[in-house]
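Schema walkthrough. Field components (list of strings):
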Amino acid sequence: QKEVEQDPGPLSVPEGAIVSLNCTYSNSAFQYFMWYRQYSRKGPELLMYTYSSGNKEDGRFTAQVDKSSKYISLFIRDSQPSDSATYLCAMSAGVNAGGTSYGKLTFGQGTILTVHP
Amino acid sequence: KAGVTQTPRYLIKTRGQQVTLSCSPISGHRSVSWYQQTPGQGLQFLFEYFSETQRNKGNFPGRFSGRQFSNSRSEMNVSTLELGDSALYLCASSFLTDTQYFGPGTRLTVL
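Field assembly_structure (string):
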């Protein structure tokens, strides 16, 4: 079983829809949670960064972390065709967890999202 | 600030050859992590360097190695290439190691 599970989709929605992307994880040491967006033939771009449980909002994007359920979500409001990309969740135990956590993010498989006009 | 840069962007090699990839981090970032991305396995952690020292290593064979220079630039090397090494190789830099910024990647094709 993978440490981080993410539904690969693909997910296709009409422009203006609310998109919900989710990941579950098994490692209770994870403290830092990120969402990246990756366009075709590009490197991942950091969208949201959250420490521990709670919500964080940035424009049309909202990230939620529920550590008790080991479940994280990314919501995209008023989705646009330019949001079409692969969305990756990533997690880290943080440097305070010790040597095996240094510089290591553990990623989900990525969800392919298409927003059609 | 300029972002993370990686060279070359594309590379074609044959089995048995070796390859060296380069990464220049964001100015002021001292941590560089490397990842391999394939359609089947997704993004997998290779290793991380900080102040010229490898602090962490993923579960890859010894054919994969790296180093970091005093200016924080990093290189990774893959010796005795195999077909399965074909992938997008990504480096990421960080000031605090939990927030990583990725470069565009080097797409390696092994024939």
